[in-house]
């Protein structure tokens, strides 16, 4: 069955054979999250979660380019300029609550990565209980390049899957994680060709939810990236000093990349990843929200957010 749709439907709902498909419908904006999208996603999620006929919930993005390309930053900028950071905190808190419900839902929740995801989009995917991806899928956390940190649980959830070293590496560098890499790391449940996508979604929906936080062996090819962000190297990295125990080429490339990021965002992200690893998920979310006012009140946050879409790289002052 399909729900009646109109031009204001930012999240579409279609239920077939016991599977509810929630499609984020802003393809021109690469399905970026904003208050209206989160509101409609919550509303549609409430409907299907309560529907006894629905056995599984699939979240996907409209169009052929993106799952969800992060959050719509225009409101972040307006909130800073108008001294309404509390509104950003309220939006993020609401998002966290919804993502946690998606994660804990009694019905399996599945994200479909058939295109890029960034920031909040990758965080939404990580909150789902399973991820089905095609080779076109990817994940990434570009926030430290624009003066802030990943604020919807991406740090805490990735660290619980791939360890704090790799979580810091991808957070600090903003390097994209291909669908293949995410599959090899155990983040993606199933990696399939586009022709097999619908069949594979149904197979995952029919199976028990995987234990996404299970202990796993990290492939050897990721070890050096994790070593870049070992406790000792993180201190050197954030100070712009030569790393130890890492190949010179990777060390120099990472230092150059991280030097372009916002230093306060890097500092807080580092502290949060360490602190979040020591507590449960709900407390970890609280720790993340508790630093939100601090980061959005920095000059670097406004500088970074305003730089998005521009031709010149932001010049951060560390304040």
3D architecture notes:
The structure is a single chain. This protein has 319 residues and is an alpha/beta fold. It has one domain: 2-enoyl-CoA Hydratase, Chain A, domain 1. 47% of the residues lie in helices and 13% in strands. The protein contains 15 helices and 10 strands.
How do the strands and helices of this protein lay out in sequence?
Elements lengths: L10 E6 L2 E6 L10 H16 L5 E6 L4 E4 L4 H8 L3 H20 L3 E6 L2 E3 L1 H8 L2 E4 L4 E2 L14 H9 L1 H10 L3 E2 H6 L5 E2 L5 H10 L16 H6 L2 H8 L9 H12 L3 H14 L4 H10 L1 H5 L2 H9 L12
Parallel strand pairs: 2-3, 3-5, 4-6, 5-7, 7-10
Antiparallel strand pairs: 1-2, 8-9
Keywords:
single chain, 319 residues, alpha/beta, 2-enoyl-CoA Hydratase, Chain A, domain 1, two-stranded parallel ribbon, 15 helices
* Distance between the ends: 53 Å
The CATH class name reads Alpha Beta
Overall CATH architecture: Alpha-Beta Complex
Number of helices: 15
Q: Give the low-confidence spans.
A: 1-7
What fraction, in percent, of the residue positions are helical? Answer: 40-55%
Main sheet properties? 6 strands, mixed
Might you state the CATH topology name? 2-enoyl-CoA Hydratase, Chain A, domain 1
The percentage of residues in β strands lies in: 5-15%
Task: Give the overall silhouette.
Answer: globular
At the fourth CATH level, what is the homologous superfamily? 2-enoyl-CoA Hydratase, Chain A, domain 1
Tally of distinct domains: 1
The H-and-E topology, N to C, reads as EEHEEHHEEHEEHHEHEHHHHHHHH
